[in-house]
Design brief:
three-stranded antiparallel sheet, 5 helices, disordered N terminus
Length: about 140
């Protein structure tokens, strides 16, 4: 990511760290601590930055902005400016971004099973708003 690029302008598509490797391409696009969760939330509807920030209480504004910029650079998320500053900016999945929904749902279902497997059901569910299917 170009740190000198003005905020709000998408950076060019990021290169695949292992050219020709589909797994590396997938992890580059949706890997990271928050990307799948952000795609999950946006699969349920568009949201403004502050709304995403409230949902992801432990994430810092800086990291949220970085993750959203990377998702935008990879063509998965669209940033819509609703008016002059300080109007909210809306984030939503692009048509290409919706193709990740089955992956997100598979990971969510596996995560539910993993929580049961590790007896950590208290952490499951509504804490981060990740209990509902995206299918």
């Amino acid at each position: 990511m170009d740190k000198n690029a003005p905020a709000g302008n998408p950076s060019p598509a990021r290169p695949n760290p292992l050219p020709g490797c589909p797994m590396a391409a997938a992890f580059a696009a949706i890997g990271g601590k928050w990307k799948l969760t952000l795609v999950y939330w946006l699969a349920h509807g568009e949201s403004h930055f502050a709304g995403l920030r409230r949902r992801a209480a432990p994430i810092t504004a800086k990291v949220l902005a970085e993750q959203l910029r990377e998702l935008e650079a990879d063509g998965l998320v669209e940033r819509v400016v609703t008016g002059p500053v300080p109007a909210p900016v809306i984030y939503r999945l692009t048509p290409y971004g919706t193709t990740v929904r089955p992956v997100v749902e598979s990971v969510r279902v596996w995560g539910e099973a993993h929580l049961r497997h590790t007896d950590d059901e208290a952490a499951a569910g509504e804490a981060m708003g990740c209990a509902h299917s995206v299918a």
